[in-house]
Amino acid sequence: MSKRIEIKDLNIYYGKFHAVKDVSMVVEPRSVTAFIGSSGCGKSTVLRSLNRMHEVIPGAYSTGSVLLDGVDLYDPAVDPVRVRRQVGMVFQRPNPFPTMSIKENVLAGVRLNKSRLSRSEADEIVEQSLRGANLWKEVKDRLERPGSGLSGGQQQRLCIARAIAVHPDVLLMDEPCSALDPISTLAIEDLIKQLKETYTVVIVTHNMQQAARVSDQTAFFNLREHGKPGELIEIGSTEKIFHNPDQKATEDYITGRFG
Ligand SMILES: Nc1ncnc2c1ncn2[C@@H]1O[C@H](COP(=O)(O)OP(=O)(O)OP(=O)(O)O)[C@@H](O)[C@H]1O
Question: Is residue 207 part of a domain?
């Protein structure tokens, strides 16, 4: 539970296109790190490299290493399927399986890893995961209904429940609130603050206030020029990045004076 991530000299490519250059950083356990930066600078690409989702795109690959508590996720001996169980992901648009019940949505990942699950085990995982995602009280009386019948914010919390049901070490979130209204957004932000007590959390967000509210550490990415690879310009405590950054580009972005 909750592991330290160390990224070393990560370069990421889509075929011949060099999308992200020379990223190195450390993410401590039980913390939230926000990735910020303008569109196309590679935030989601870096995020997807943290659970080996990048390489499923045809022609896509990366060099460098991503260590989870010292173990390189890119070591040839490491099974990418196992990596994705250890490092869960929540996407921009809530994506519950539409025909599955709420209960089966929560269990979907668990069933992939464990074919036999007793009824009582399943019930316990469902309750724990939904409680962990702050959704239990709202859905406990309709667990057999389809996940698609929930509101957008509830669906996103269902996806978080599905992600935590397999007990990952890390949770990656790619703009998890961008499709949600402000109330649902605040509910997810509260949840993120709780989740960091158990998991290492990395979130991509375009919302500066959100980064300031939920994260302990902020990483600012930028493109030096259109067509060039994205780079990590600066990383530090969220307090420092927002109030006293070292780089002018960071300050310009934070204060909205950006190109
Ligand atoms: N599947 C893909 N195939 C080829 N190029 C891609 C692919 N996905 C992303 N890219 C390119 O990689 C670069 C980084 O994209 P990425 O989506 O990681 O940026 P981002 O910072 O997350 O952007 P946004 O904030 O708009 O989501 C961009 O130039 C993008 O066009």
Answer: yes
Number of independent structural domains in the chain = 1
ipTM of model: 0.98
Residue 84, domain CATH = 3.40.50.300
pLDDT in tens, 96-140: 998 999 999 999 999 987 778 999 999 999 999 999 999 999 999
**Residue whose CA is at the smallest distance from ligand 1 atom 27:** 39
Average pLDDT over residues 240-252: 96
pLDDT of residue 258: 52
Residue 70 lies in a domain: yes
Q: State if pTM tops 0.90.
A: yes
Report yes or no: 211 and 199 within 8 Å, Cβ to Cβ: no
DSSP-assigned letters across all residues of 219-257? EEEEESSTTSPEEEEEEEEHHHHHHS-SSHHHHHHHTT-
Distance 90 CA to ligand 1 centre (A): 17
Q: Which domain holds residue 138?
A: 5-254
Ligand 1 surroundings by CB, under 6 angstroms = 14, 17, 19, 37, 39-45, 57, 230
Flag whether 198 is in a domain: yes
